[in-house]
Design goal:
single chain; 613 residues; alpha+beta; GIY-YIG endonuclease; Nucleotidyltransferase, domain 5; eight-stranded mixed beta sheet; 19 helices; 20 strands; 43% helix
């Protein structure tokens, strides 16, 4: 049993990161501190005045852990990495929005590629960005693939090496053709590593390389080739000037402005390079309870610049931030040059900060209705469903469905919605292993037993706040029986509400079945629409998985496993009996009367199913 009072006494007076967990072991907040003992203790001091929102967060802390670091800068870096990985509920987060493109280097592959992506995943690849726009990403990728001749294909290497001839890119000198085995993994890695160094801010190397190759071509009187290198050099210089920090610290800066509305904030960034405003971009954040503008700006800087390979020499802010000195040290080390954080009080720089704030406020005003509608259809709808059922807010909803064809190879799907939005990284597929035939109740029970048995398994994410089962009372009772059995060792599972998503006679969503009561929902309201989206998505995901298995010839009728029953007899049996269950329950005489069957085939069918009893 974790005794908070006793554990507080053990805290060191060192810099580090602290992690708060709730009763389900879900991480709800991550923070850093110059002095762990002082900072963490403050959360549990009853004499301190706190807002209701912070009180709610503190009331959910079941236990905490901490990691000691050598310095505040190390704590800052660790805090940011952990926040990005875990995305705690009570931390301010820069949204992973499709507006912000990244470059993904697939270092998990033996022959890495560069890919534009708008989603940062928790995998082994490296991500660079976010960039101001997709055009900037395309320019960088095009330059690096041309200079270092990196592959752009989707072939799985080294598995597919030598299976096909090299594509056109090899023949025009734009690829080293690892697909044909023309370059070793080690040789290719040298080129990929050079591209990585450019993405991390070293443009000098690529410029010098192009100049060298251009000179070689010119000396060899290969003027056409030298002209191609000249074009590449111009492209490299433009990109490095637009995006890389220059030597003149007074001419390269980012200017930040902020606007806040409820739990949403927008940070506007002006990108000034060589004294000129080259671009601007706004970024959305979801806020933790009672965050001040200073907290929001600090969170944004740490999350945004941790992924940006291009750091300005100066960052102008609308307000002072508590950990400015630590952030300056971190960014300076990351960028390889001095990075200063300043809050201008007068003159042109102050006017630019004011302009950035005006732009942020304008964007927020324009998007206010859009944000409000999105809030109503997602988190608002999830809140209304929770209220209707009389349960705590169901932040994480997990929905399940079973799909099968002719009783063979049933599959289950697990779809996750958090705050009313799909969380596709947490979707899971299940092949049914223990159930013979089309038994949806038993199949659903197997899926939930396997899912709920994965306690603490990060592949499955946090435990659900609400289970949504495709079906009515029967499916719900099957799941509740599983929960009751598992709860002998883990009684907290009994607190998870289980609902059936019931449909009408036309197979359309009708409402929810919960605690032996059916809740009919208004079709015109957002809670019903959210439920419909969840149910449709769950069904789609299950069917999609089933189709993929059928496409691999892995799904067929269970009748195909019976000796002497070929495609014609299988079809005849299904047409005559309408379902596998009816075939399973038929006697030998009845089976022999089916057109196309004989006594020997009927006996084979009966013996097959009798042996499976």
């Amino acid at each position: 049993m974790f005794n908070i009072s006793e554990e507080l006494k053990k805290l060191p007076k060192s810099p580090g990161v602290y992690i708060h967990h709730d009763s389900r072991d879900t991480i709800i907040y991550i923070g850093k501190a110059k002095n762990l003992k002082n900072r963490v203790t403050q959360y549990f001091q009853t004499s301190r005045t706190r807002s209701p929102k912070i009180e709610k967060m503190v009331s959910q802390i079941a236990w905490f852990e901490y990691i000691v670091t050598d310095s505040e800068v190390e704590a800052l870096i660790l805090e940011n990495n952990l926040i990005k990985e875990n995305r705690p509920r009570y931390n301010t987060m820069l949204k992973d929005d499709k507006t912000y493109p990244y470059i993904r280097m697939t270092v998990s592959e033996d022959f890495p590629r560069l890919i534009l992506t708008r989603k940062v995943k928790k995998d082994k690849d490296k991500y660079y960005g976010p960039y101001p726009n997709g055009t900037a990403v395309h320019e960088v990728i095009e330059l690096l693939t041309k200079v270092y001749k990196l592959r752009t294909c989707h072939r799985v290497l080294p598995r597919d090496i030598g299976k096909e001839r090299p594509c056109l890119n090899y023949h025009i000198g734009k690829c080293l053709a690892p697909c044909a085995g023309y370059v070793s993994k080690e040789e290719y890695a040298v080129q990929a590593e050079a591209a990585r160094r450019f993405l991390e801010g070293n443009s000098t190397e690529i410029v010098n390389y192009i100049k060298s190759e251009m000179k070689k071509a010119s000396d060899a009187m290969e003027y056409e080739r030298a002209g191609e290198f000249k074009e590449l050099l111009n492209s490299a210089l433009v990109i490095s000037q637009n995006q890389k920090v220059e030597d003149s610290p007074t001419e390269n800066r980012d200017i930040l402005g902020i606007a806040v509305e409820g739990f949403e904030a927008i940070v506007q960034v002006f990108f000034v390079r060589k004294g000129k405003l080259l671009d601007r971009e706004h970024f959305y954040l979801t806020l933790a309870p009672d965050e001040t503008n200073e907290d929001i700006v600090s969170s944004f800087i740490k999350q945004y610049y941790s992924g940006s390979p291009f750091l300005p020499a100066e960052i102008l802010l609308p307000c002072a931030i508590e950990d400015a000195e630590a952030i300056e040290s971190w960014l300076s080390a990351k960028g390889g040059h001095k990075v200063s954080i300043k809050i201008p009080q007068k003159g042109k720089k102050e006017k630019m900060v004011e302009l950035a704030e005006k732009n942020a406020a304008m964007v927020l005003e324009q998007d206010r209705e859009k944000v409000k509608r999105e809030e109503m259809r997602t988190k608002g709808a999830a809140t209304e469903i929770s209220k209707m059922l009389g349960i705590n807010y169901a932040r994480r909803m997990e929905s399940y469905d079973i799909s099968n064809t002719a009783g063979y190879e049933s599959v289950g799907s697990m779809v996750v919605f958090e705050d009313g939005r799909p969380k596709k990284n947490d979707y899971r597929k299940f092949k049914i292993k223990t159930v013979v035939g089309p038994d949806d109740y038993a199949s659903m029970a197997e899926v939930l037993r396997r899912r709920l048995s994965h306690e603490g398994d990060m592949r499955f994410g946090a435990m659900p706040d609400l289970l949504l089962i495709d079906g009515g009372k029967g499916q719900v009772n099957a799941v509740k029986a599983v929960i009751e059995d598992l709860a002998k060792d883990r009684p907290e599972l009994l607190n998870i509400p289980v609902c059936g998503m019931v449909k009408d006679d036309h197979h359309r969503t009708r409402g929810l079945f919960y605690e032996n009561r059916e809740y009919i929902m208004d079709r015109s309201k957002e809670p019903f629409r959210l439920l419909t989206r969840i149910q449709d998505e769950t069904h789609r995901f299950a069917i999609e998985y089933h189709k993929s298995l059928r496409g691999k010839a892995q799904v067929r009728s269970i009748l195909d496993d019976i000796p002497g029953i070929g495609p014609k007899r299988r079809l005849a049996l299904i047409r005559y009996y309408k379902s596998i269950d009816n075939v399973m329950n038929a006697d030998e005489d009845s089976l022999a009367d089916v057109p196309g069957m004989d006594r020997r085939a009927a006996k084979a069918v009966r013996e097959f199913f009798d042996n499976r009893q």
